[in-house]
Amino acid sequence: MDRFRGVLAVPILGLLLAAGSLARAQGKDGQPLLHPATASQVITVAVKELRAGKHGKQDEFVIAQAAGFPNDTCDVVTTFDVVKKFEERQTWQNIKQRIDVIVNGTSYPAKFRDIGFYPLGLNLACIDFESPMDRAAAQFSVLPLDRDTQDSTGLSYDDGEIAKTDPGTPFLNQRGEISAVLIASPNGPIEFASAEEIRLFLKAAAAITAWPTVHRRNLSAI
After folding, report:
1. Fewest beta carbons within 10 Å, which of 104, 128, 131, 163?
2. How are the residues of the chain apportioned to helix, strand and coil, as percentages rounded to the nearest 5?
3. Are the CB atoms for 62 and 166 separated by under 8 Å?
4. pLDDT < 50 regions, the chain
5. What is the model's pLDDT at position 2?
6. Residue 73 belongs to what domain range?
7. What is the total count of domains within the chain?
């Protein structure tokens, strides 16, 4: 799987960097700028390690954290780096860890939807609430994806805003749609995944069932 990730990541990374350079160059000629979504539209995904504390109490330590945004396919889309450690260590018997979605300061237990070939060259991850009731209680709105992806190369980003924006944050076009998502790897450069690439990722995520399918018994068969 690691070898497959590497094969995917290299060509797509090159495309992303090339697209980013083109976007900034064209933006100087009066093209519209993309800006990050407001804090109310961005939530946080945290991976926590549970360790034995004093008097039998478990202490929680945040080992990875990133911004994220809600979607109809995945409850939250975030950068893959925030759950990379979780994925690597989820089978370790001596390590207890959990994923939380944090909305307006309230933490909700969540789970990582393992598509099986992360990061799909896009460094994105799909997070689902453990309970559908928690998702309803979070009461967040879903931002639509950019419909006109052909214009993505004509959009520019403000470098100052990029520098102070957390990975996983969506950047919006003038219509309020997500045109790109800021992603970053621990040892690599900051990149953007476009709306079209996010759509490709969500298509793969949709093929994986987030919850067990409940089959109702036909009353006539009883």
Report:
1. 163
2. 35, 30, 35
3. no
4. 1-28, 119, 212-222
5. 39
6. 2-206
7. 1
Please give the single-letter amino acid code of residue 141: S
Question: What is the C-alpha separation between 163 and 153, in angstroms, rounded?
Answer: 21
Count the Cβ atoms, other than its own, within 10 Å of residue 66.
22
Predicted model pTM? 0.75
N-to-C CA span, the chain: 46
Question: Is residue 38 in a domain?
Answer: yes
> C-alpha angle with apex 195: 201 to 150, nearest 5 degrees?
130
Residue 169 near residue 43, CB atoms below 8 Å: no
Residue 211 lies in a domain: no
Domain presence at residue 116: yes
CATH of the domain at 64: 2.40.10.10
Radius of gyration of the chain (CA): 19
CA 98, 103, 105, 109: dihedral to nearest 10 degrees?
Answer: -20
In-domain check, residue 212: no
Shortest CA distance to 44 belongs to which of 1, 100, 120, 94? 100
The predicted structure's pLDDT at residue 27: 40
> What pLDDT does 115 receive?
74
pLDDT digits (tens, 9 = 90+) for 18-38: 334 333 323 445 567 889 999
Chain center to CA of 189? 17
